[in-house]
Design brief:
heterodimer, A: mainly beta, 4-stranded antiparallel β-sheet, 10 strands, 8% helix, 42% strand, elongated, B: alpha/beta, 2-enoyl-CoA Hydratase, Chain A, domain 1, 8-stranded mixed β-sheet, 16 strands, 40% helix
Chain lengths: 113, 515
């Protein structure tokens, strides 16, 4: 709201450099901007949980050969049994979860080599 | 029975209904720092103007022993009154009565006062303080919400609708405020959510506090669901009273004029506020205050997407909506949130005959993976849509940078601004000098014996030639290049000239904005 006293003696804000199309501007950065996640390209060899839930079944074991489309495990979340399949051909390098385990979102479940 | 006895009987009945949920429940409400429903209404409305209706409405629930319960007024207070003399329809959910839960008759009372507001064409204020649907009344509760949402939608753009969240507003209930024009929240008191922290914890395993998930600050700063944030209920009511002075009663009226006042020119001097170096930040709100009546700017969504500033002020006594890039925050870029924020405000002003004044100083749309993936194309398009569609008087002042897509979007001549003015400091160009020079003179720079020096020279050349308002002025895209000190006079004159503007849009059922 209005506050004339504040206008008379302004605090010098903590301006930071901010680059847009090669021009460098001095400006404040918002919390939301600072909290944004840096982009990482998807790695289909690492299978993460896309939603928090419970592992209901694991179809593969370490060392198994898998082909694109093969079922890896069932992740139950929001009362749905979600089948997680592999998007790449390869060998199951490591399984990071077991049947009955509760997992959070973006938890590493299976590694494929 | 004599008239006197009948009157005594009425008074007794009223007393019973007016007690709300009873002493204990009222005490509990106050212990959490909240006022009661009636106290809130009385605090918002002019003294002595509140007239309550449907006090004797009783709830309709019969199942689960509900027929044995007495719920005074069925947990909601409705009526009419005035704010600064303006007519208002108002309802307030009463948390002390069955947690303000919404049953069939509770919803009926709300829809009835909404129908009144629509028929009488006066603003509607809804105070939300409710645990949600009354589970015992089953599908009738859901029906009640649906009837409210439908009316919110039909009333949108016809009468101003104001929602005040003074307690929980949970589940489906939050969609009523979301459909209204302005949402007021109070720190520590307001909670708005679809699924609360407990459900999120049990279903998803994510642990978060109520305040961090859905408190007032979250909605004011991060989600943008709230338009006005305050520290206390009484501050919130002052904000509501102020907002009402800037907006008309309905879409066929204009906001009430006030006596014209000069800006406080000693406090807000453009010369002191405004750096000509286009990379230096400043607070554009001070420029607004240097221009508008009495230097009084009533900001909307102050904390959300602060890289654009929106709000109401008066020019020569007339209410106007200001939209201004804020160079002090994220260099004033347009991004997903700021586009969304501006576009909605522009549509509100257009719907309610409030002229738009746009102050331009932006480097363009924000580049980045997060922005592209968040749909900056779709959201950014909202600004173009809203400005192009608006038929109220549109005045644009380009202060400094107006680069690329940002130049077009910020109510340019091409989107049918009625008047576009530029300060002599304006730089209207396809992009910033550095970027442009690097592209245009690329081979020349790389092929020279001293690329760095050539680059600098070329940037200077480009600046000299294009980083000014005169190229755009030469094509007539800028109507006048004006001295900053003359800005107020130019805006007031243009608003006066455009006051009776009639602009016909092509006939259609409705457009399809990039929602």
């Amino acid at each position: 709201m209005e506050n004339d006293e504040l206008e008379v003696a302004p605090e010098q804000p903590d301006y930071k450099p901010f680059v847009i199309l090669e021009e460098v501007y001095q400006t404040l950065l918002t919390n939301k901007h600072l909290a944004r996640k840096p982009y990482t390209p998807p790695n289909h060899k690492m299978i993460y949980s896309f939603i928090p839930g419970t592992i209901r079944k694991v179809f593969v074991k370490e060392g198994d050969k898998v082909k694109k489309g093969d079922k890896l495990l069932i992740l139950e979340a929001m009362k749905m049994n979600n089948e997680l399949t592999t998007l790449v051909n390869g060998k199951v390098k490591k399984i990071h979860c077991k049947t009955g385990e509760m997992v959070t979102k973006s938890q590493l479940l299976v590694e494929i080599a | 029975m004599s008239l006197r006895q009948k009157t005594t009987d009425l008074k007794k009945r009223m007393q019973g209904a007016l007690q709300g949920g009873g002493e204990k429940a009222v005490e509990k409400q106050k212990a959490t720092g909240k006022m009661t429903a009636r106290e809130r209404i009385l605090a918002i409305l002019d003294e002595g103007t509140f007239h309550e209706y449907d006090l004797f409405v009783e709830h309709a629930g019969k199942d689960f022993d509900m027929d044995k319960k007495y719920l005074p007024g069925d947990g909601v207070v409705t009526g009419t009154g005035n704010i600064n003399g303006y007519p208002i329809c108002i309802f307030a959910q009463d948390f002390t009565v069955a947690g303000g839960s919404l049953g069939y008759m509770h919803a009926k009372k709300i829809t009835k006062i909404m129908d009144h507001a629509m028929k009488l064409k006066v603003p509607l204020i809804g105070i939300n303080d409710s645990g949600g649907a009354r589970i015992q009344e089953g599908v009738n509760s859901l029906a009640g919400y649906g009837e409210i949402f439908y009316r919110n939608t039909l009333a949108s753009g016809v009468i101003p609708q104001i929602s005040v969240i003074l307690g929980p507003c949970a589940g489906g209930a939050v969609y009523s405020p979301a459909l209204t024009d302005f949402v007021f929240v109070v720190d520590k008191i307001s909670k708005m959510f679809i699924t609360g922290p407990e459900v999120i914890k049990t279903v998803l395993g994510e642990d978060i506090s109520m305040e961090d998930l859905c408190g007032a600050r979250v909605h004011a700063e991060i989600t943008g669901n709230a338009h006005f944030f305050s520290e206390s209920e009484s501050d919130c009511f002052e904000q509501i009273k102020k907002l009402v002075t800037f907006i008309p009663w309905n879409n066929s009226k204009k906001a009430e004029p006030f006596p014209s006042k000069h800006p406080k020119s000693k406090l807000f001097k453009i010369d002191d506020i405004f750096p000509t170096d286009s990379k230096k930040p400043y607070d554009v709100r001070k420029v607004i205050k240097a221009i508008c009546d009495d230097s009084e700017f009533f900001e909307v969504q102050e904390l959300f997407a602060a890289n654009i500033v929106i709000g109401f002020a008066r020019m020569d006594g007339q209410s106007v909506g200001f939209v201004a890039n804020q160079p002090m925050v994220l260099a004033g870029v347009l991004d997903v949130d700021s586009s969304d924020k501006a576009a909605r405000f522009i549509r509100f002003c257009d719907a309610f005959n409030i002229p738009l004044v746009t102050l331009v100083d932006l480097p363009g749309y924000l580049p980045g993976v997060d922005q592209e993936h968040a749909g900056v194309i779709r959201h950014g398009a909202k600004v173009l849509y809203a400005y192009s569609e608006a038929t109220v008087p549109k005045i644009t002042v380009i202060l400094r940078k107006a680069y690329g897509g940002g130049y077009i979007a910020m109510c340019s001549n091409h989107l049918r601004a009625d008047f576009v003015f530029a300060w002599p400091t304006a730089e209207i160009a396809v992009m910033g000098p550095e970027g442009a020079a690097n592209i245009i003179f690329r081979s020349e720079i790389l092929g020279s014996t001293n690329p760095e020096e050539t680059r600098k020279k070329k940037i200077e050349e480009y600046k000299e030639k294009f980083a000014n308002p005169y190229v755009a002025a030469a094509y007539g895209y800028v109507d006048a290049v004006v001295e900053p000190s003359k800005t107020r006079e130019y805006i007031i004159h243009s608003l006066e000239i455009a006051a009776h503007k009639i602009e016909e849009s092509p006939k259609k059922k409705h457009g399809i904005p990039p929602f």
